[in-house]
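If you are new to this repository, start here. Below is one unmodified record pulled from the training split, so you can see the exact layout before writing a loader.
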Amino acid sequence: MRALLALLISVVALCGMARADVLAPRPFAEEFARALKTALPSAVVTVTGDLQLKITDARGGDTTMFLTNPYRDYQLDPKRFGHLVQAFAAALSQSRSAPAQFDRSRIVPVIKDRQWLADLHKTLKARGADQEHLFESFNDELIIVYAQDDPSRMRYLTTKEEIGVDRQELRALAVANLLRILPKIEMQGDGHVSLIRAGGDYEPSLLLVDDIWSGGQIKVNGDIVVAVPARDVLLVTGSRDRSGLKRIRELAAKFAAQGPHRLIDTLFVYRDGRFSKFEAK
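And here is the target side for that same chain:
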């Protein structure tokens, strides 16, 4: 287990700085720019003022962006830094997207927490691009957002777009597409806490693949308990494994507190074919 903990903690250290203290405007803009570069690797992000960025896309187009609203939200809750970066990056990508050319074979499900969607819609509305994204509820804390994953970008779908797929069939189609494009799914651990890896972009979406959880290949003490604290992290332990529960809580809190791709530190238990919030007895 020491090796697993060392691996996870080292990744946490690379995700970004600890955010216990509220940053002043200029350091906030600099840290925001660094995180945005990770979220938008094809863009060049330059700090041009205390709360101002210049973003140059792959085609050479420049956009000046003001961070006044994200900074105000950050001051109210510094732990939301990662959410704010995600929402900003998604809004920027959405507004620059070309008219949709749908390929049903590239529609995938993306697990997000509800705060992510609220932040995204707030950011889009502030930029004059009020949109409703195509999503459905997964449980009280998580949602399924649908996206088109093309080789050069991922674009979140909106409710106004005609995607040519019946809503009742959408999840099954998206999950099948996801399984086809994912690399080999691997699990590492010592019997207390395991880390499931599948390429680094869709690990939380594996919660939608019921065969993984109902097929008996995951052996834990009690019911399966998972955490999805970041886009590339899926942790597993058992509901009666006290040592595993303690460690998974610590790791989930660390991942969910840092980095541009954070999600949520809540634990979920798999019972009766679904994941719900885990309430320790």
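Two things worth knowing about this chain: Residues 81-96 form the longest helix (16 residues). The two ends are 25 Å apart (CA to CA).
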